[in-house]
Each structure stands twice: as structure tokens, then as C-alpha cells.
Amino acid sequence: LNLWSNGEGKLRSILIVTHNIEEAVQMADRVVVLGSHPGHVIANVDVNLPRPRDKHAPEFEDMVDKLYSILTGRGNETMSKSPRTPNPLSGVKQMAAESPTNRMLPDATPGGLAGLLEIVAGYPDGIDLAELASALSFEVDDLFPLLDAGTLLGMLDVNRGHVTVTEVGHRWNDADILNSKVVFADIAMSHVPLVRAIDRALRQSRNGSLHGDLIVDLLRNKEPEDVARKQFHIAIEWGRYGELFDYDADDDILTLDEAAL
């Protein structure tokens, strides 16, 4: 910003690449939102805010919310939408027809999601994304994996940057310790094709066990090696939390959890 303001007219433009929405709004006059698989332009947004910019001003927060909506495929301005964008309104019937590779699992733990739900549930009318990030002393972008997990599981609704807990989310958040795992298992089986596929494969196997590399190899048909293994381990973490199945990493063996049996 100092370089731009002290350029004395010699500097015509600056190009910044960032994953931080607040940084983009703080610095840029124009934000180009990019998507992947394959690389493409999702939206081109002018930022007409006066300088210096106050990140706590309503206009600033509105712009952050707008870009978040575009980035996650929920904004009206979205020009192109990835088929893997989580849709929290999808029903069980639609999900049942989806391939385990159709939806990328966000890198979020059930414990982290439970903590986020507890905070958001404290606001009956929901909370703005920028305000939520500020309350947690983190950047908006840091919340993306947890928010994506919440919307994928139908527990959170994010509308133009305003976050609310859904009826499903309240059901899990209000459950006691004993029932929370049962509720989570039911939600994961309904909303996450990969978790459901692993559970069904285990139930159809002769001895109720599978090699984990079988699932990874199947995922590698659609994803690179590192992505396939990451998706596998996230699904295992979610399934283990819901006491659907266990995984012995030393022997690379998946088994049905006793509670599931």
C-alpha cells in the first residue's frame, strides 16, 4: 500500500495473489476470483471503497461477505460453479446417487466443527462471517474448512456471509455425549457419499474388513495421490468419530466398529 501511494505516478498497477479475502478487500481495487478443475475465472469484482479502509466498517464486511459468497458458489454473481461445490440443501435421495468422489471433504475435524457450532448456536439469528472471525481472532479464510464441513453435513447455512445453525445442526449440538456420536453417524451417512461407500463396502465384505489402500486406489482414479490419501483419512476420521468403522494404520485394515455392528 505504501508502494502504491508513494509511486508518484510511475507505478501503473500491482498484481497480488492471495487466499486471504480480507487482505484482498484491504488492498485491491479489483478482485478476480479464480476456480480450479480446470483453472477458470469465477468472477471479476470492483472494490470501490475509500482509502484508508477500515476492516470493521459495514461496507468492508459486506464486501468480504460478497466475495465469500462468490468463492463458495453461493453468490448471485457467480459466473461458473464447480460441480463439487457443497450444497447443504441436497436431500438424502440426491446424495444416494452421488459417487464418493463427487464431493471433496473439507479438512475439518468433528471436534472442531462441534466447537464452531456451539459458538454460532449462541446467536439465535446467526452471525456475520466477519464478526465470527473477529470473535475467534482468526482470519475469515481460516474458517472455510469448518464452514464447508458444516454446510456439506447440512448443519450450517451460509447465506452471503451470514452463518446460522440449521435444524440438523441444532440436533447434533444439543445431543448429549452418548447420543452425539449416533447423531453424527446418521448425518454423515446421509450427506457424505465416501463415508457411506466405506460403510457399505465393509458390510458387504466377507469378514467385515477391508484394506485401506483399496479405497485409496479407487479414489486415485479421479484424484492425485496426495488428494486421494487426504480424502481417505478425513473420511476415516469422520467415520471413527461416528463409531461407524475403525482403522488400524499399522496393518492398513478397515473394520466395522462394534457399535455399528
Summarize the SSE layout with pairings.
Layout: H1 2-5, H2 21-27, E1 30-35, E2 40-46, H3 58-71, H4 92-96, H5 110-121, E3 127-128, H6 129-136, H7 144-152, E4 156-159, E5 162-165, H8 167-174, H9 177-191, H10 193-204, E6 209-211, H11 212-220, H12 225-241, E7 245-248, E8 253-256
Antiparallel strand pairs: 1-2, 3-5, 4-5, 6-8, 7-8
End-to-end gap: 60 Å
Helix tally?
12
What's the structural domain tally? 2
Task: Tell me the total number of β-strands.
Answer: 8
Q: What is the mean pLDDT? A: 86
Largest sheet: 3 strands, antiparallel
Report on this model:
With 261 residues, this protein is an alpha+beta fold. The chain has 2 domains: 70 residues, no CATH class; 178 residues, no CATH class. Helices cover 46% and strands 13% of the residues. The protein has a 3-stranded antiparallel β-sheet with strand order 3-5-4. A 3-stranded antiparallel β-sheet has the order 6-8-7. Strand 1 and strand 2 form a beta hairpin. The protein is globular and about 75 Å long. About 8% of the residues have low confidence.
Give structural attributes:
single chain; 261 residues; three-stranded antiparallel β-sheet; 8 strands; 13% strand
Summarize the structure.
The protein has helices at 2-5, 21-27, 58-71, 92-96, 110-121, 129-136, 144-152, 167-174, 177-191, 193-204, 212-220, 225-241; strands at residues 30-35, 40-46, 127-128, 156-159, 162-165, 209-211, 245-248, 253-256.
